[in-house]
Amino acid sequence: MPTISKLKAREVLDSRGRPTVEVEAHTSSGAWGRAIVPSGASTGRHEAVELRDGDCDRHLGRGVMRAVRHVTEELGPVVIGIDVDDQSAIDVAMIAHDGTPSKGRLGANALLGVSLAAAHAAAAVHGEELFVHLNRLWRERLDPGEPADPVLPMPMINMISGGLHAGANLDFQDFLYMPISAHSFAQALEKTACVYHTLGGILKEKGHEAHLVGDEGGYGPRLRTNAQAVDRILETALACGLEIGRDFAIALDVAATHFHESGTNTYHLSATGEEALDAAGMTSLLEHWVKQYPIISIEDGLAEDDWEGWTILTNRLGKSVQLIGDDLFATQAERLLIGVERHAANAILIKLNQIGTLSETLDVLHLARRNGYRTIVSARSGETEDTTIADLAVATAAGQIKIGAVTRSERLAKYNRLLRIEDYLGSKARFADREMLGFA
Ligand code: 2PG
Ligand code: MG
Predict the structure, then answer these.
(1) Which residues line ligand 1 (CB under 6 A)?
(2) How far apart are CA 188 and CA 151, in angstroms?
(3) In whole angstroms, what is the distance from residue 317 CA to residue 415 CA?
(4) Which atom number of ligand 1 is nearest to the Cα of residue 382?
(5) Domain 4-127 belongs to what architecture?
(6) List of the chain residues with pLDDT < 70
(7) Is 225 exposed, middle or buried (0-12, 13-18, 19+ CB in 10 A)?
(8) Is beta strand 174-178 parallel, antiparallel or unpaired with respect to 249-253?
(9) Using the 8-state DSSP alphabet, how is residue 213 labeled?
(10) Region label for 333, one of left (φ > 0), alpha (ψ between -120 and 50) or beta (otherwise)
(11) Secondary structure of 348-410 in HEC code, one letter for each residue
């Protein structure tokens, strides 16, 4: 089997114009693969460390030349000669060489670049699509009889952005649209694109800056309240002739960590003015939202270390609502296991760069499935033309994917990749529809 023969790395720019790491993994057969690492803005405290240079003379300190050098000088000697098909051996060798739990010595951005480039190279060696190769890695983890076929994910699509992703005044980070009546990925996208454009028109009509979009392409209007964002989406869907709850549902990424004060363990929403809420108060607020609106999914409704709060939230809402841990779990098996034990959340967001290697990501996906947690593969707010997450979501039948709005090429590259995969699979294509996902 061909082995890794050479690594190349360079600094490229992401969708926010910030540097990130690109890696090429070459193999002894001549086949090679390339990957680019994404980057978050509302980054959780428990995420693997993204190494930045801190040299203020370049890219305001955000350069990644140290990570780039680590790819060729530190990781190259470690992975060269390893069978390119042996993803675990590649990842284990890099983790051991870094030697820190956070991957902070060499940088998770260096490790992930190599990890993903190697997977692309292995797919190229076999002359197969990446999702086919990833599906093989996935099957290795499954017990006999566990469903293993690729499935196209249901998208949750960003319509309005707030929080740290947009300049306006909304506390909640993402107001997302889920086309739950769709029976294929193409249909899901088609239905949503129409709503996105109509929403732009409606915001404009009401005097909002519909042309201003956040980091993920969602509109960034200056609305008075968080609730208004949902109202505008509902209004738009009705204008498009869609039926609430039947044709579509709403998902939120509250990203509560960024308005949580850890000293007092309280939440500070601009909507509630001076009054701070504790976890029970936040839970009541979210419960009220769920009663009022067709919300089927809430991500990071509470802060990343508020485990007690998460247990309250899950006990109160977990039966009827998908509660996703993003900052809470940071795609880490140890943290997911705490969640299982404490009955915190019932779904996990999966971001490759929160953990830093493909193998560990596949392990967490499998752990989540074994424990009955739904899985949502997610892009970061800083993205590029790299489409690896589309293949990952399909290969592991993750069920759901969160990429951003249906505009901006770093987002569309992934959506279009999913359209392509659905087309390749033809009559074999299966889509994670409402029934498969078990949304009531
Ligand atoms: C999130 C992500 C993607 P970021 O919070 O879920 O929306 O944002 O990449 O900035 O962490
Ligand atoms: Mg999030």
Answers:
(1) 40-43, 173-174, 216, 253, 255, 326, 349, 378, 380-381
(2) 14
(3) 31
(4) 9
(5) 2-Layer Sandwich (3.30)
(6) 167-168, 271-274
(7) middle
(8) antiparallel
(9) B
(10) alpha
(11) EEECHHHHCCHHHHHHHHHHHHHCCCEEEEECCCECCCCCHHHHHHHHCCCEEEEEECCCCHH
The structure tokens 């190599």 sit at 114
**In sequence order, which ranges of 206-240 are alpha helices (DSSP H)?**
226-239
Report d(CA 30, CA 20) in Å as an integer.
26
Task: Quote the CA–CA distance of 118 and 19 in Å, as a whole number.
Answer: 21
Strand arrangement of the beta sheet that strand 32-36 belongs to: 4-13, 19-27, 32-36
- In the chain, where are the structural domains located? 4-127, 154-437
Give the atom of ligand 1 at the shortest distance from the alpha carbon of 164. 10
DSSP state of 83: B
Structure-block tokens of residue 166: 């947009």
Residues identified as active-site: 216, 351
What's the pLDDT at 386? 98
Nearest CA to ligand 1 atom 3: 380
Question: What are the pLDDT digits (tens) for 247-303?
Answer: 999 999 999 999 999 999 999 988 666 679 999 999 999 999 999 999 999 999 999
- Tell me how far apart the alpha carbons of residues 237 and 196 are, in angstroms, rounded to a whole number: 9
Looking at CATH, the fold of the domain delimited by 154-437 is given as: TIM Barrel (3.20.20)
Say if strands 295-299 and 322-325 run parallel, antiparallel, or are unpaired: parallel
| pTM assigned to the model | 0.97
